[in-house]
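Aim 2, interim progress. The first record below pairs a target sequence with its structure tokens.
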Amino acid sequence: MTSGVLLQVAFFVALIVVIVIHEAAHFGVAKAFKIKVEEFFVGFGPRIWSTRRGETEYGIKWIPAGGYVKIAGMNPFQPPAEEDLPRTFGAKPIWQRALVIVAGPATHFVLAFIFFAVWLGAIGQPVPNSPIVNAVSPELGGVESPAAAVGLRVGDRIVAIGSLHDPTDAQLVAITRAHVGEPLDMTIERDGEGIPVTVTPVLATVAGQRVGRIGVLLGEARETSGVVGSVGGSVKLVGSAIAQTIGGLGRIFGPEGVGRLFKLLLTNAPRRTSDPASVVGIGRVVSQTAQSGSAWDILYIFALVNVFIGLLNLLPLPPFDGGHLAVLAVERLRGGKTIDMRKLVPISAAVAAFFILFTFAVIYLDIAKPINLAP
């Protein structure tokens, strides 16, 4: 099994763990309010194994697509036993029921915060300016490369070239190609010290073209944050991800997104990186990210995925958690008068059918027309 496949499998397993954490939050808050929880299972379908501890049955099922908890009184077609009525979901105050529901989606935002904070503190955000030297070519065209001649090393940071300070990698390439045979003053940062050098770009063949080069491969510089900076930066990233995801949900599941999906399914239109992706597609992106040398940026991707899952669960539509919260809000406005959940079953079925069909369509596209991050 290749490393790419292993990464995709690991990503899928991590998603299952995240969903189990989501369900565990529902379970824990329900137990805290003394609501009866009848089942806590990982997976769906036929049982593989189960055990009963107290009033709750715990177990594993064959279809590894997440997990669920069965809370007494939440299934409108399974009336609870009379002795359990005081401990059913519907018997508790609205605020307690709301906390039980919101606990699941909240875990995704907490996990996103943790992943963002670790990424900022341990890996760091890419800095677009003053790129790092990732490799130095000993020769160009059979002679010593300009970079090797002036002693550039892997890890050097190019902080100035000519009159330009803090250049981007694109600016460095443009200046190098525009000054073939002309000496260029360059300042590099090594071990915190600025070192001036002078390089003269030479012609070299790149992708079949003769262009100016000095003989280096460039990489992104990164800046890590301390504990305080990581916490503050993580809060900002979660907020930014929430704002972007809200807009993305409207685009993906609205008329534009559905129309785009049909176009991809029925025509030869190519996939774009902005198109929605399933677990299969995201797993492939994770694999590509790791193989490009940015393996720990998977933490960033996983944080974004958690924000998406959290907001998706908060959509005010049954059977999502947000649908249950919407029902509780209506009950509150009606002075506590309960809603017959059986009347909402057709809506739940329609919403579930839409999202299931949408998901399978995107999975098909991720197999037939995979999104490729490579340039």
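The second target in this work package is listed in the same format:
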Amino acid sequence: MNIIDLKFKFKIKLACFFILSLVSCRALGQDTSRIVNDITQLNPIKVNAIIHPTTTEEIINAVKSNPGPISIGGGRYSMGGQTATENALQIDMRTFDKVLHFSKKDKEVTVQAGITWRKLLNFIDTAGLSIKIMQSYSNFTVGGALSVNCHGRYIGQGPIILSVKEIKIVLANGDLIAASRDKNTEIFFGAIGGYGGLGVITEVTLYLTNNCKVERSDTLMRADEYKKYFFDHIRSDSTVIFQSADIYPNHYNKIRSVPYRITQKEVTVPDRINPIKENYSFNKFAYKVVSEFPAGKWIREHIIDPILYRKNPVEWRNYEAGSNVEELEPRSRKKSTYVLEEYFVPMNNFNNFYPAMGKILRENKVNVINISIRNARPDPGTLLAWARTEVFSFVIYYKQGTKETDKEKVKNWTRKLIEAVIANNGTYYLPYQIHATPEQFDKAYPNSTKFFALKKQLDPTNKFRNKLWDAYYKQ
């Protein structure tokens, strides 16, 4: 038998194995074509059907013809079932991604809500413009970012609503309406940060800003020095565009601040936008070292980061904004997975919260990979505002097991962190695992009663659902 025959027989066996696997899954009731999951792979949800609209009319017809439930998904980077619920019609917005109107003169763009930040960056970069507020990674959809009222590392900014001029939204009765600060105001402030509870955001008009060159620097300090440092060197410096700070586990007593300042120097990074790589093997290996090696946290603090920050690159603002979340992706999420949580505290409570946070994480042996500290200016009035005053945010990136016992442990220490942040007049972010008790949710989001009243008015049959509102919506 020659090598060609062997290859052919191998391909036949492989094809048979694949077909048998599919048949077995269906025999067991596991029709994966109707399973919606998020990036953590912890929350598989079986829906009745999934549609991929490309026009507003398709969305309107789907909402009118389907009595409910209906759930809405974008990039699926929320981590607790915020984009799906059982037996729903799933509207997958990722094919709804056109640029509808652009004005370089007015620095405005109108897009369909399923467009990714990456695609939008590619479009506006040629005009020398940039996005005012977005997440640290460009894979997310614009509509999803509005749904969670995201923020980024932008100094002098805050929730994304600060950069939104107008939205269009399909309500439960099929009506398509425009909402802004001046018209249908309550819907504007309810739908942004409303996690798909009021309707389907279809179009977004954003204010843009100029692209510019930025230079990275870094400063290492004690954690108790950070608040003063931030006020003296970051908040008051109008040249700082991006800034975040990493607090090192497991002692949580050292912080490295990483600002990017406007510069006129020549770029040292030639690409205008961060290129998509075939793989991120170094990043994946580094995260494995930090999360699995016995001295992984020490290696990160004393070896990896000093090498990473040995130079001060000069790059375009759009390059830094175009990062790919794939660099964080582990090789497998079967036995363990990477997850995020985030907590917001008023600026003056920074030195009270971070020691309490560190104590809880240490006592519960949480495998923290990184905690990133951000700043956000106050929210202008969304009903589910997470920044009712100017805040520091603590973005906790950690690794957990996928067994039920692992999930239960995470729930326990998460609730302790929520109690600690509420005690400091702060709140927790809603796009992550749905571990908070109803009482904790009510304390952290006191205006949720107004949001639910508006939902009852606009969606009386509770058509728009997901696991977040299944947990907390009081009809």
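Residues 3-27 form the longest helix (25 residues). This observation will shape the mutagenesis plan for the next reporting period.
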